[in-house]
Amino acid sequence: MSENGQAQMRKSAGHVIVDTLAAHGVERTYVVPGESYLDVLDGLHNSSIETIVCRHEGGATYMAEADGKLHQRPGIAMVTRGPGAANAHVGLHTAWQDSTPLVLFVGLIPFEHREKEAFQEFDPKAWFGTGAKRVMILDHAERASEIVAEAMFAAMSGRPGPVVVGLPEDIIQQEISAELHPEIPVATGGMTVTDWKALNTALQESEKPLFVFGGNDWSHEGAADFTRWLEEHGLPAAAEWRCEGTVPFTSPSYVGPIGYGRPKPTYDLLEETDLLIFVGTVPGDVITDGFNVRQNWEKKNFIVTIDPALRGRSGPVSHQIVAKPDVFVRDLLLMDLPVKDSWKEWTSRMRGEQEKFAQLPPATPSAGQAKMATMMANLVQSLPEDAMVTFGAGEHTNWAHRYFPTNGYASMISARNGSMGYSVPSAVAASLSYPDRRVVTIAGDGEFLMNGQELATAAQYGATPLVIIMDNQQYGTIRTHQERQYPERVSGTQLLNPDFALMAQAFGGFGVRVEQDSEVPAALEAALKAIDEDKKFALIHLIVEQGVKAY
Ligand SMILES: Cc1ncc(C[n+]2csc(CCOP(=O)(O)OP(=O)(O)O)c2C)c(N)n1
């Protein structure tokens, strides 16, 4: 009996885990089932949480990771022991390098079978020890709710990232109190008086300041406020690699992407600016071109991140502000600075370069083989303002960086760890979260087949992304590297592809094969019609020449 005399309700630990997730606001979980965690699946049976059954643990974990980026709350994936855990690993690596909150539940062998190499036994702490923020094993059923709350907290607190929770099969079946652990609040930081003075002085002394925004920890409103403040002050902002959209493509303050494949004038900004302010990110490997650019310790580099330890994972930093981006922006809005003419001139010069870079190619098809340029021109003209783009890794992604109008957070969802196979799962997660928005994924012929099977998940749950596959019959990025280092010795990079349009149809979607450039507009129109009227996902298999680059 509890203190107030009422009999305490009891449930299995597996059910309590599900109830705790629901109490934390979790709406969706991405799973590949296993006999190791049947009790949790049983808890999901009557839960408000929607269970999305996926076809591969890599796909499930990528979807959960994308969910974390979309909502700044941990995405939730559930997989089984040994083989399932092994397949899920790629999503964890993505969540780690991309700082995405993610909680991966892994069913485990029964407690008493441990250390006997039982069927599918593995060591979660050893496997995930260096790739997750925490690895927790539920050894005492009574702690089920507490461990879920701790996992959610650990995934979101400080630098967000992946957390693994191991669930031994027998322990989750034990009956425990159904009382739920409350949500644990996460510290958000903020500007101190010292930070405020340092930033205010640095901005007032600067003739060419440049903000760089990045990371996944923005709210839509925080991003919009940031943009308004920049525009009011005539200040410029560039996007960290694969983080476009936080300051909209159309904003006069947006001066372009500074990741791999950036245009030369944008690259030069990093050395030219006299004050760099990174918000939600740090000057890491990609931005600094392998820690080459902006390495002079005398230059002024501010970083705004909630994790003080991130200072050690970047190039030179002169001042750190410990705050989440939204909280920093809240404080920034109170900073009234006199606008300098030099800022406006500098911003408008850079904006001019960005507009040249993003100038669409002709939408009218040319004679001959299909071209990605024609596809992008037609696609962009068809897009509503709030369209979203997702992609994985490969040269085909450069077309999105250059031309896709990303407006607001989150309108670009991709893998900054450069992981292939992310395009379809992330597009499925985005479409499920935002069924009324146009979700486009741009895939390579190599990239697509790493998780293209998740189109079955799209069909099963009514996700309606538009999938554009740029088929250049090769692992193009690696071929490019190969030609640079081992010219004319093509090895290990060529592909013979199936008919992806037929595959899409077999999976229950719309599919069209495009070989001639003249076919592009009609194919796009038919694909969009299938999405809007037939409520199906659509796939365009675009066969392009080998070796055609976005820039
Ligand atoms: C999971 C994974 N495996 C291998 C790589 C190495 N890799 C990077 S890009 C690339 C080729 C991508 O080929 P494709 O999807 O056809 O795109 P393209 O570069 O031709 O546009 C490879 C193999 C990677 N980044 N991720």
TrEMBL record:
Protein name: Acetolactate synthase-1/2/3 large subunit
Family, as annotated: Belongs to the TPP enzyme family.
EC number(s) from the headed UniProt entry: 2.2.1.6
NCBIfam families noted in UniProt: PRK08199.1
This protein's record includes keyword Transferase: yes
Gene Ontology MF: a single term: acetolactate synthase activity
Record-annotated Thiamine pyrophosphate enzyme TPP-binding domain positions: 392-541
UniProt domain Thiamine pyrophosphate enzyme central: residue ranges: 199-332
Enzyme class: transferase
The Thiamine pyrophosphate enzyme N-terminal TPP-binding domain, residue ranges: 13-126
Superkingdom classification of source: Bacteria
